[in-house]
Amino acid sequence: MSMLGSLENVLPADIERRSMEIIESEWGDASHLTPLQRQIVKRVIHTTADFDYLGILKFSPTAVDDALYALRHNAVIVTDTQMALSGVSKPALKALGCEAVCFMSDPAVAASARENGTTRAAAAVDYAAQRYADGNVIFAVGNAPTALVRLYELISEGRLRPSLVVGTPVGFVNVVQSKRLIMSSGVPYIVSEGRKGGSTVAVAICNSLLYQLYDRATGNLL
Amino acid sequence: MSMLGSLENVLPADIERRSMEIIESEWGDASHLTPLQRQIVKRVIHTTADFDYLGILKFSPTAVDDALYALRHNAVIVTDTQMALSGVSKPALKALGCEAVCFMSDPAVAASARENGTTRAAAAVDYAAQRYADGNVIFAVGNAPTALVRLYELISEGRLRPSLVVGTPVGFVNVVQSKRLIMSSGVPYIVSEGRKGGSTVAVAICNSLLYQLYDRATGNLL
Q1: Are B53 and B41 a contacting pair, CB within 8 Å?
Q2: Which of A188, A213, B1, B171 has minimal Cβ neighbours within 10 Å of its Cβ?
């Protein structure tokens, strides 16, 4: 079992702290980011091992402040996948009186998508927009560019004003464009410019925001 | 709304096919991969928009064959996160008589981790190993290197012989080493060499394997 000797000896409770230290020691110049933005980018790199995020993660100027305000006031986080929903920290949401929801598996959403020839992701945005028209809603879109496009349309038409859009869909068809649309929409955003992103990236951003307000070690609000 | 004019006009049902075409047109030389391995790598790139996976996704020689055989014979897929669990295609699993499980939230696992000073991920591997000692089990590890290390130990001690290990934990502490251990263990593996990976990568690999056997359009087995 000599191969086990190559392992670094780090206590379970210290693995994340050690990871963050390694990221800081390797990521070079992060001076374009505020301290809170830096926390978010660090968690995204921790989640992807991809240092590209230092350059491609874009924040509207007040996005972090707006997000923290929203999370302190019972925000609803709407995700575009069940995977993202299952990744957002439930203890943190609960402690803050927030919740996370996903409508992708709702039969009404599937029916509406079929009827209108759209994706389920776009139909799920419409569904959420109706449900939370005047609410405190954070959209966390880690998969479907069509969800971001539909958000842009509703925002442009004055029918929706999200507290924050986390826009990190990944892929090759309309992904780059959908992110540009959201960054031009006038709402607070945190977006991974270009093709990269994913559900785990959206979750890392949401959890990093939640962990500004919630201490995982004690379960207390900060 | 002129910005919407920049969008590529692709029908919802064609987005994935179009994405795969784009990947094939950009990824260069994929001749080191078999046709089935190529499907898997393509889905991982589709999931990450990261062409690095063309070089870093490593297959033991018979891994794909072994995996398809296992999935045709009622395999249990054990994931190391609830996120990964929620991403594996449930209709495909059901049609094949397979199932996916995750023990990370099991109170017995948390208690055992506390007692033994290990991570929950390592304790969850022990739990699964006891439960499925002689079973047809695929481990899909997209997060925790400590899960891979524990798998390596159990395999080395002759106490476990997984049908396949999908080893794509991501990060900075013992991630590279844990993957090397699994690649030296003698069991069939699909591993993302280096630091990169993640739950979405593990899910993409599992689903790509499932979609070799299950037609999503018709719901029929292939």
Answers
A1: yes
A2: B1
CA distance B209 to chain A (A): 19
pLDDT number for residue A72 = 98
Q: What is the pLDDT of residue A2?
A: 61
Asked if A161 has any chain B CB less than 8 Å from its own CB, the reply is no
State the CB neighbour count (10 A cutoff) for residue A211. Answer: 16
Per-residue pLDDT for chain A (222 aa), expressed as one digit of tens each?
467 888 998 888 899 999 999 999 999 999 999 999 999 999 999 999 999 999 999 999 999 999 999 999 999 999 999 999 999 999 999 999 999 999 999 999 999 999 999 999 999 999 999 999 889 999 999 999 999 999 999 999 999 999 999 999 999 999 999 999 999 999 999 999 999 999 999 999 999 999 999 999 999 999
Name the phi and psi angles at A96, rounded to 5.
-90, -5
Chain B neighbors of A194, CB-CB under 8 A:
49
State the DSSP code for A152.
H
ipTM > 0.95 (yes/no): no
Nearest to B12 among A3, A12, A118 (CB): A118
Q: What are the residues whose beta carbons fall under 8 Å from the beta carbon of A58, sequence distance 6 or more? A: A183, A189, A190, A191, A192, A193
Nearest to B173 among A19, A146, A198 (CB): A19
Of A85, A172, A175, which has the smallest distance from its Cβ to B23's Cβ?
A172
What is the three-class DSSP state of A172? coil
* Integer Cα distance of B38 and A21 in angstroms: 36
Q: Which of B47, B86, B151 has the highest number of chain A CBs within 10 A, making it the mutation to test binding with A?
A: B86
Subunit contact A171:B19, Cβ cutoff 8 A: yes
Q: Which residues of chain B have pLDDT under 70?
A: 1-2
Q: What is the pLDDT of residue B2?
A: 61
Catalytic positions of A are 46
Contact A113 B12 (CB under 8 A): yes
Q: Note the pLDDT tens digit of each residue in B28-44.
A: 999 999 999 999 999 99
